[in-house]
Every structure is written in C-alpha cells, then in structure tokens.
Amino acid sequence: MISKIQIRGFRKHKKLSIEFGPNVNTIIGPSYAGKSALIRALRWTAVNKPAGVSFINWDEKQTAVRLTVDKQYITRTRSRTSTNKYELDKKEFKAFGNDVPDEIRQLLNLSHVNWQGQHEAPFWFCETAGEVSRQLNSIINLEVIDRTLASLASTLKYAKVGKTLISIRLEEAKKEVESLLYAKQMDTDLTEIESFNQRISENAAESSVLSDLLKRVVIYASEQEQAAEAANRGKIAIDLARSYRDIRKSANNLEDLLEQAKSTQKEVKRRPPPFESIEALKTKLKEADEKYNNLYDLLDDIESGKDKLCRAKETLKIRKNKFKEAVGNECPICGGLLTKKL
C-alpha cells in the first residue's frame, strides 16, 4: 500500500510531500492547485506514462517522484538530457524502454486500468465488448479461469462416474455383509469357546499344583510325626539325663563313703574292729560298687540319647522350613490362614 508520495519538479509542483491514510483518500483544492498533476505523477511512476519530458517544471533540469510502499522506497527520475531511471531502495534500473521494471511493477501491482482522467468516459462504459474482455483478461486472466473451469468439468465428470461405480460396489458390499451376518455370531461363539478352554487349562494347571502340594503335605506330615516321635525320645533322654545327674550326685556321695571306708579300713588294720561291723561295711561296699557300675552304664545311655536328640532337633527344624516354604501362610486344602505356629 502506498503510504507517502514525494514530488520534486513535476509540472507546477517544485516540492511536495503527502502522506496517505490507510483507507480512502480524497484530494481537494481550488482549480490549478495541482490535483491532476499529483495524480499524473503517481501514474507516471506506476505505469511509466506519459513519455517525454514535457511534465518537467519549466525552471527545473529534472523531475523525481518517490513512493513509500510497504516500508520500501520507489524513486522515478527523469532529466531533460540523459537521466531516465527507476530505483527500488538502493537498487537502480535502467534501459527498461516503455515498461516498468518487473520488481517495481509487482510491488505496486498497478496497471493502466487503475487510472482514469477527469474528462474520460466512465470506466468500460464506452468500450467495445472485445476491449472490455481484453482489459478484464489483463486483470484476472480469463484464460486461466476457462482452463480451470474445463478442468473442473472434466474432474466432475470422472467424479460422477466414480460415484456411480462406488454406489454399485457399496450395494454389493451391503449384500455381502448381510449374507455374512452369521460370521459375527460364530466369532462370538468362538471367543467364548476359547475363553472356556483357557479356563479349563488354568484349572488343570492349578489342580496339578494342588496335587503336588497335597503330596508334599502328606510327606511333611509324616516327617513331622517322625520328628515329634524323635522329640519325645529326646524328652525321655532329657529325663534320663536328669536322673543321671541325681545318680551322679549319689555316686559322688558314694565315692565319699568309699573314701571314708578306705580310711576306716586303715583304722581296722590298726586295730581289729568288731566282725559284725566289718560284714555290714563289706555289704555296703558291694552295693556301692554295683550302683557305681550301673551309673556308668546309665551315663553311656544318656550320652547316646543326647546325640539322638540333637540330630532329631536338626531334622525337625529343616522339615519345618521346607513345609513353610511349600505351604506358606495359607492352608493348601481350604485356603485359610494358618495361625498355629509349627
């Protein structure tokens, strides 16, 4: 959009600068104020017309018009002698003939149809149909529209044929779908059968696991009974050990008595004791020897019982751990929580 025009030495305007608003702009003023000259300066820059140098102010050597368009500067300069150029910012154009350089023409996007003098007939009203068509074609390129319409007509024709074919195929597909409705029910039945078979396989696997667990439970129960029996034997051995302790105490007492008997025997050798007391002491000594021998046998039995008790405890501990690893905290038969400690 043109936002500003600056004129120097064009017709009666020696120096002029005008800023345009963003919407519609109206130029007003008294006659011979230079309104038409301003429009001609715009047209001269936009379409490079009129030719020649007659529009240069009579006391200037050259004329120049600068347009500010979208923050870019277009400058048209012409002198009475040799200067004839366009400038776009700092880029210079020469030897362009009667046309406008392409870059400037594309930036302005203006042609001769955009201009009308105050004494010219209304736009296109007095033109022939051919001329109107030619000018309209130069604006909107009717050939492209015609080619586009022809292409659209051809595309529409093929689209209609395609639509007919698709409709026929759609009807055939609908009939085929109706003829295959039983397949949907078959698929549902197959899905249920597969789900049922999967549940059977899962139940079989669970039954196998439960069977193995039950066998292990029977084995562990038998081992537990054996361990309990071993524990009872160990308890008996402990009781025997306690008895051994008491007997050992008695043996120690007997050893003390034997020492006393030896001392008494020495005394007897010194002086003969009464015969009855010697017989009684002999009897006691014999009884003490028998008890002493019995105690030693009992001690051997107790030591053997200790070893058996220790082995039974170790076996019971290992089998408890195995049973706990296999069963856990749930009963393998009823699924209840096991609260009793093994």
What does this structure look like?
The chain has six helices and six strands; from the N terminus they run ββαββββααααα. The protein starts with a strand and ends in a 15-residue tail after the last helix. The protein is elongated, with a radius of gyration of 65 Å. About 10% of the residues are buried. Strand 4 and strand 5 (about 85-90) form a beta hairpin. The mean pLDDT is about 80. Among the domains are: about 1-110, Rossmann fold; about 215-325. Helix 3 crosses helix 4 and helix 5 runs antiparallel to helix 6. It has helices spanning about 35-45, 100-110, 130-140, 140-180, 180-270, 275-325, and strands at about 1-10, 15-20, 60-70, 70-80, 85-90, 90-95. It is of the alpha+beta class. It has a six-stranded antiparallel sheet with strand order 2-1-3-4-5-6, with helices on one face.
Structure described in brief:
The chain is of the alpha+beta class. It contains 6 helices and 6 strands. Strand 5 and strand 6 form a beta hairpin.
In N-to-C order, the SSE pattern is EEHEEEEHHHHH
Largest sheet: 6 strands, antiparallel
Radius of gyration, in angstroms, nearest whole number:
65 Å
Q: Identify the strand order in the major beta sheet.
A: 2-1-3-4-5-6
- Give the overall pLDDT as a whole number: 81
Considering DSSP H and I runs of 4 or more, what fraction of the residues is helical?
A: 55-70%
Q: In what range is the share of β-strand residues?
A: 5-15%
